[in-house]
């Protein structure tokens, strides 16, 4: 009989984490759905709400490093309570309607102190509850973003049409606090102690080299690849509703298309988690990037409503396993005691890439008046990421097997 730290409590914690993230990641989606009306209220410049969306991701990445460190020295519960409070405060500030309130509310409060306290620390925390099905658990937890995408855009679109984006933003902030704070207080608790000698939990001993490189250099290259591949990942998600509006497709259909994209991402992420448990994190990252490149290319060739629904669904199926597979790769290559800072450091670059992608697409649209250049730039970034990942995979083939510790 195999001895494992996994239990019903492990899956209860994972499900609570999904619920928390599915609410907290609804906050940035408000800007995505309301991008056109917000831009209209701010002088018709899409770069401002696009920047707010970018700052939310960038802040979450930067905050993850700080909050991961804090969670390692206090508790994930305490950090999550702070995060839920800050999401509420950020949306309340942003609902004021001024550009500075929007940027500060999403960048500092929703991003740095809100999702920064929830997403990266939660990924590290949940990984410590699992040793046999860690890939599946990480895929489930990280799919909280896609549960948010499946549930909220269509509802936001109707509420914004009826009540305006500022009232909806304030109301959702109160809802987020009422949901996240009780879940964090009641469910999150210290993870179980790892079994002695279990390399699946403790990770490898601290090695002199990782993939034949200095450990920090290996992490830096992985993080750079994650930055590059997350640029195109964010572009359709952040601009799909606006892109549909430019093509004469209604806001309701655009919101439904976004929900479809993220619903497919949620469903496919469970497959990618299963796959990463079998072929490893790095190979899963490469496979996901190949699928994402194909999906981005498809956006260049399709502009009718039915075709875009199909492309959006395919894009969601393809890209959704990439980020949790990066986390899986870090946990495979580095000791568990280093996860509290290595995982948030990696996710900082991942979320920074999403921030750059959301902003870059808005900037290029304002410059050229259409999204084609943005999609092409995203494909170029994806190809650069694949080149980096391919080089790391080739180095891994010749790397020695690390001993447990």
From TrEMBL:
The chain crosses the membrane at residues 12-35, 47-71, 78-100, 106-130, 168-189, 210-234, 254-272, 306-327, 339-361, 373-394. Pfam families: MFS_1 (PF07690). Keywords: Membrane, Transmembrane, Transmembrane helix. Gene3D superfamilies: MFS general substrate transporter like domains (1.20.1250.20). Residues 12-396 form the Major facilitator superfamily (MFS) profile domain. GO terms for molecular function: transmembrane transporter activity. This is Sugar phosphate permease.
